[in-house]
Every structure is written in structure tokens, then in C-alpha cells.
Amino acid sequence: MAAASRQSCWSHLRRDFQAMIDRGGAAEPIGKELPRLSDRLFRWWHRLEAEKVDRGRFRTAMARLRCEFKTALEDGVRRDRARTRGSCAEIRRVEESLLTLGGWRACRRRTMPRSVPSGTR
Q1: What is the rounded distance in angstroms from the CA atom of residue 45 to the CA atom of residue 105?
Q2: Phi then psi dihedrals of residue 27, to 5 deg
């Protein structure tokens, strides 16, 4: 499946980031950087949804964040811990679907439905 078509869950990714922090050592700095970047991404997203920024400014911010995110992941791939290298390599494979406006919006709709008890469907 093409990366842009894949659904990725930020909650699962944040657990991966926390695991890097928990491992300590060389994995810890990358584990701290990735959630910081994802926090910035969500702040920008919420500003766009609230119409506090226009799409052009949002896209500019996303381009900058994409570069920072890719740099952090590339740094993680070079770490001495196999789990950190593997986690960062896997995230790199799907990062296109994480940081694109269209893919992100579609993912948000699929992963954040209204809560409906399964017995009432």
C-alpha cells in the first residue's frame, strides 16, 4: 500500500517515542525530540481548524516541520540501539502519510470517529 494511503496513529507513534525515552542512552534524545515535534504539528493543526492561520502559512509550517521530523528520524536510524533504529526506519516509511494535509485530514476522519457503543450500530 502506498505510504500516502496508509493510516498511521499518532497515539501509537507517541508510545514508540516514549519507549525510546525509557530505553535511555543514545535513544533518549531522539525520543524527546519526536514528541516535541508532534506537539508542534498538532498545535498548527488546531490553529488551522480554528481558522487562526490560512492554509498557505500552515503548509509552510508543515514543510519546516517535515524537515525537522525527517532529520530527527534520520538521526534515530543512526543510533546504536537496534530497536531505536528499527522504530525510526518504520516511521520514515510512513512519514509521508503523517505530514501531508490531505492524508492527515483523511486519517483524522477515520481514526477519530464519534464514540458510538458497538451494541447500537
Answers
A1: 10
A2: -80, -25
| Structural domain containing residue 19 | 9-109
Cβ atoms within 10 Å, residue 55: 10
CA distance 68 to 14: 16
Dump pLDDT digits (tens) for 58-111: 989 988 888 898 899 999 888 878 888 888 998 888 877 775 544 444 334 444
Residue 114 lies in a domain: no
List C-alpha distances in Å: 69 to 35, 44, 57, 110, 116: 10, 15, 18, 23, 34
Tally the domains of the chain: 1
pTM more than 0.85 = no
Q: What are phi and psi of 120, to 5 degrees?
A: -105, 5
